[in-house]
Amino acid sequence: MTLEPVIEGDMNLREHLRRDAQRLAAVAERPRAEAELLWAHALGLSRAQLLTRDREVPAKESAGSASSLIERRVRGEPVAYLLGRRDFWSLSLQVTPAVLIPRPETELLVEWALEGLPDGRDVSVADLGTGSGAIALAIAAERKQARVVATDCSADALALARSNAQSNDIANVDFRRGDWWNPLAGECFDMILSNPPYIAENDLHLPALRCEPVIALTSGPEGLDAIRVIVAGAHSHLNADGALRIEHGAGQGAAVRVLLAAAGFVQIETRRDYAGHERATGARAP
Prior knowledge:
Layout: E1 3-4, H1 13-24, H2 31-43, H3 47-52, E2 57-58, H4 60-74, H5 79-83, E3 85-88, E4 91-94, H6 106-115, E5 124-128, H7 134-142, E6 147-152, H8 155-167, E7 173-177, E8 189-194, H9 225-234, E9 238-247, H10 253-262, E10 266-272, E11 278-284
Parallel strand pairs: 5-6, 5-8, 6-7, 8-9
Antiparallel strand pairs: 1-2, 3-4, 9-11, 10-11
Helix pairs in contact: 1-2, 2-4, 6-7
């Protein structure tokens, strides 16, 4: 990265940021923040460093790299894919279009899971459909003595999750490839977690998510197909009094509670996210 002395007629960083924030306003909730993130990434600076040097003029090559990122964002590519990273819980995770971008709402599931996993004890946890490894790695980082198994049907997703485990120095996760329960044959766990695909196939919001893998987003006409599979097989993979906890769509809490009750689960509970939406539902094996 090169920053040059101000040259009359050239745009300095402050001017670039002002212009690009205006361009991003159509696609971003925080256009100025996104402009700063993308410029900092292109220039190899932290965001704080960028702002202390905003009167300098970037070299044409660096400005071109930043402009390319801005243009891709204007076309709808998520910032996380452009940066190649996303912060989740206490971790910095690599993300690519092979995996769903971890959402802040999913941290609710991690927080709830940790409430039921005593620290300093040998516990076993399974994370179904791990994607980038966000849930499994957050649990493993907080519970060093836990044995965590993370599954996914995508080889690319598992490769990324393994890389994230290595970069975050987390060694107590076993990654396995396969659909839902197939990689866990004959095993039982104290807790099973999942953020499965739960969007209906004809949902009107899907075009806004076109850059993310559809296999990680949609699950049948009601968005409940994967959740049905998880609930149906959970009894065979839970220890006595073991817990199942699933993230779902804001309008699916009632349906998931019905599925759990019909499967014989007890102590059924739904947690809301910070916006007040029902976001995760869980229960215990009888």
